[in-house]
Amino acid sequence: MSKTEWRVGVAGLGTVGGGLLNFLSDRAGFAPAGGKAVVTGVSARSRSRPRPFDISNLPWFDDPVELAKSPDIDIFVELIGGSDGPAKAAVEAALNVGKPVVTANKALIAEHGAELAALAESKGVPLLFEAAVMGGTPAVKMLREAMVGDDVKSVAGILNGTCNYILSEMDSSGRSFADVLSEAQRLGYAEADPTMDVGGFDAAHKISILAALAFGCAPNYAAAEIEGIDQVALLDIQLAKDLGYKIKLIASANRSDEGVLVRVHPTLVAQSHPLAQAGGALNALFIEGTRIGRIFIQGPGAGSGPTAAAVAADIADVMTAANRPVFQAPATSLTPFTPVDPARNLSRAYLRFLVKDEPGVIAAVSETLAEAGVSIESFLQKPVENAEGVPIVLTTHAVAESVLTAAIDRIANLSVVLERPRLLRIARI
Amino acid sequence: MSKTEWRVGVAGLGTVGGGLLNFLSDRAGFAPAGGKAVVTGVSARSRSRPRPFDISNLPWFDDPVELAKSPDIDIFVELIGGSDGPAKAAVEAALNVGKPVVTANKALIAEHGAELAALAESKGVPLLFEAAVMGGTPAVKMLREAMVGDDVKSVAGILNGTCNYILSEMDSSGRSFADVLSEAQRLGYAEADPTMDVGGFDAAHKISILAALAFGCAPNYAAAEIEGIDQVALLDIQLAKDLGYKIKLIASANRSDEGVLVRVHPTLVAQSHPLAQAGGALNALFIEGTRIGRIFIQGPGAGSGPTAAAVAADIADVMTAANRPVFQAPATSLTPFTPVDPARNLSRAYLRFLVKDEPGVIAAVSETLAEAGVSIESFLQKPVENAEGVPIVLTTHAVAESVLTAAIDRIANLSVVLERPRLLRIARI
């Protein structure tokens, strides 16, 4: 605390790195806990690449690992990205020489968080990653610090702004997934290779981190069940709307006596629910605790300004010299993560069938569902123009996924059914 | 950090104190940062008063000041309440002997926060008060820690659950303020003397604290402009609804080049706005930062469980030995609080007049407004049964409060106007 200056090394000079350099130069006196933050080293893939900010006066390192180990820095900020490779090597190098690390890297923390936490704690230095989840919206700090006086039962929300933007645009403009995605790519809202976002993998990284913080277990990205939005049809968005729902990519983690279930999938959320109303690229999260009840938090999930602000807040946290476990409980005593078989999970479901327009079809479908033990809650049939067949939609009462899947298999084989039925879950939140 | 046990003294054994004792006995191993929290002393007004929890095995102190100074405690938790008297004396006593303090006392922090922060920082010990604002919803931590990497422009929200409950009930049941208040008192949702809540003073304490955290200034409760909900008529709730609004008690703090404006008043909020949808006893807050943009947080603002969880989180923070200023900036360097004259503030307004049912009335009112420089945005006249006169309602474009007040004075003197016009602000949020 008597430190008057904190020398910061920044590896990775993309939008977040640029935002951080801008922030630290705008706020030259940034000294939230007494000492002042000063950038004393930077590293990126190319020194000469044109950037909207000036790095000519900053000591340059070709190798982020050298920057991480440099005696000229007190805090290593990793903004390279990727679960392995140079990001992991540099973070390990910094921790190994006892330097605090701040990172925005969700893949790294979701896939290697437990081992990195153990390393950080063995060296007695912090490893902070607020910017990895929800950008400038402090979900990590809330779960790690504010919820320690409670037992969290579930976290659920919208963690990928790109998907939320695409689904919101499909809903409001009536355009297809492919159309909206190409537009988002032109506007820079989606990557050239959008797989991480639209495939649900980015949201799965983030919810894996939140689950670890919420439940005091190690992050277990491998156990996450992941479904993206690339198969969400405009027709389903429109039919869901008729039933009073919006389709959102919901990432959720639930703890029960059986263990932990971490999932990402497109989900029907009642239109009046705050998560349904989080439009555009917003991120939003519900946290449910035994004592506190339900807390809702919403804000921008990405962008240079918000994400850099989160990194700056972590730098401030390093300055306070707080001695706190990386994941709520010390790495050596994290609760084992017991995955729950999703097939045993109960959900209400939305099912959409494309059927031949002939008598007896509804009876055939509903009898098959009844035989399989699936109970229907509501039913909708609407004329759709130029359709190959007639879409019928129903929602079910809560049913085990295994029962539902078996029922869908049987219905898919009915001669009156023209394609494999589409299944979407309905939010319990 | 090598501490294996943190001995906690708890002064004040009401609902929050009971919740905390229950939590610490349920979670006997509560050791969020390595050391275990153990209650080693309690104090309250009466030892023998019947309580739903057992204190017979805990060392008793008649005087909270003696508990605060006791060599048998490491952390002093103040849950007595009140801005002065024993609460202040005990907190000062603990800080003076270098003991960390955790308090849920909003009046104390709002009215004496700066001097207590200076004392705590001079002794190098934390003074934490998460439970003082929004109960279990971590608004304090968000502003103090997560927003340090940003410049906050405004905070605004619903900070008093009792008022929110009363307004929500008036809205949904069509009953008067007095009716709903007596019911809330019977149900224990409102105090026997409800002045602190319904008069807006509790919300003003809370927003004064949030303003200090947001803007890095000392809390200045004396500068808050306060209007409660005791004058909110059912008629206004109904007319506001016709115009697309709900009436909420909004506490807000805004920073501009001119200074800081801290206000609490009943406010019209568009029905689609998240603050309008925070019903029942919920608390909700918007934080707007230059870089991060808008963050929204919502949760329970009171109650034994949530508030005790917030106190427990603060105890955990003490254990981390974080060295952080009490109010974002060190007490010695807090920005001076420059209050802005509310009369210069621009607001859109809702005005309700009770007028004689005769020709030319609307012309008289609207001419007077035009002469005063108030521009009308919308206008509503509805027949109301058994009314003494005819209510007419209008909303204005943004106008300085001084201009508005002058216009109201002139209209109140018109012979066709039967009572002083009712003014409510329309939220800018």
Automatic annotation (TrEMBL), chains A, B:
Family in the record: Belongs to the homoserine dehydrogenase family.
Positions bound to NADP(+): 11-18
Keyword NADP: yes
Organism: Phenylobacterium haematophilum
Functional pathway: Amino-acid biosynthesis; L-threonine biosynthesis; L-threonine from L-aspartate: step 3/5; Amino-acid biosynthesis; L-methionine biosynthesis via de novo pathway; L-homoserine from L-aspartate: step 3/3
Record keywords: Amino-acid biosynthesis, Methionine biosynthesis, NADP, Oxidoreductase, Threonine biosynthesis
Name of the protein this chain belongs to: Homoserine dehydrogenase
GO BP of this protein: methionine biosynthetic process; threonine biosynthetic process
EC code: 1.1.1.3
Gene Ontology MF terms in the entry: homoserine dehydrogenase activity; NADP binding
Residues that coordinate or bind L-homoserine: 191
Domain ACT stretches: 350-425
Annotated SUPFAM superfamilies: ACT-like (SSF55021), Glyceraldehyde-3-phosphate dehydrogenase-like, C-terminal domain (SSF55347), NAD(P)-binding Rossmann-fold domains (SSF51735)
InterPro entries: ACT-like_dom_sf, ACT_dom, Asp/hSer_DH_NAD-bd, HDH, HDH_cat, HDH_CS, NAD(P)-bd_dom_sf
PANTHER family attached to this UniProt entry: HOMOSERINE DEHYDROGENASE
Residues given in the record as NADPH binding sites: 106
Active site per UniProt: 206
